Predict the structure.
Amino acid sequence: MKVVISLLVFLVSAHLAVAQEEKVLLENEWVRVVYVKDGPGNKRPDHSHRDTFVYPLTDFQVRVTRPGDKPTDIDVRAGQAAWFANVTHSEENIGKTAGERLIIDIKKPAGSWKPVSPGDDPAKWPESLEAVTAAPENHEIVFENERIRVLDVTVAPGENEPLHMHRMPSLLYIIAEDDIQDFDASGKLLYDTRSQKAPPKTPYAEWMPPQAPHRVVNRSKNALRLVRVEVK
């Protein structure tokens, strides 16, 4: 009996150890993007966030404790974005589901990026083509402060997205992408998933400079889904 109990304890412990993950998806001079997964019972010791955006990918329950404070239990919901500035805390998954999230550190202050050349200055692009204005059915603002703006982007199956632009450089977290084309304002093809010899497996992270007016055509039977974090 003791052998059986010991084996069960070992298997449970091994499962919990595997359930905790941390992987850097992308890092450049602007952002550091880390995928984090904590299984039920997993703990993370004290750590700090200076200028950090957190985007939950799943629903989970977490106990957060700041040094010298009482613990706070939080029911986190997928897509419930949060910003942390100069915060130190520990975390414990107190629920029954794994907590998956993106931890995105913003490295530079607002206004740090500049256009490549005056002719490429996004400030000169028509305001009417700003993404949320020109294609509101496809771009929903889920968070915004003085440092970033976060869009939940969806292009339905068979949809031809309205022409629009993105003034700011962005981190893209592509959740679902099957069969799409991207065209510029003149109709020139910019991107076609069918021409990719080894298309990246979703989900994946990608850095994107400011995008001049363009439109996406979704030829798939599935929706295109991504989260766009625009850096101001």
Notes: Confidence is low (pLDDT under 50) at residues 7-18. Residues 187 and 218 are 15 Å apart (CA to CA). The longest strand covers residues 43-56. The radius of gyration is 21 Å.
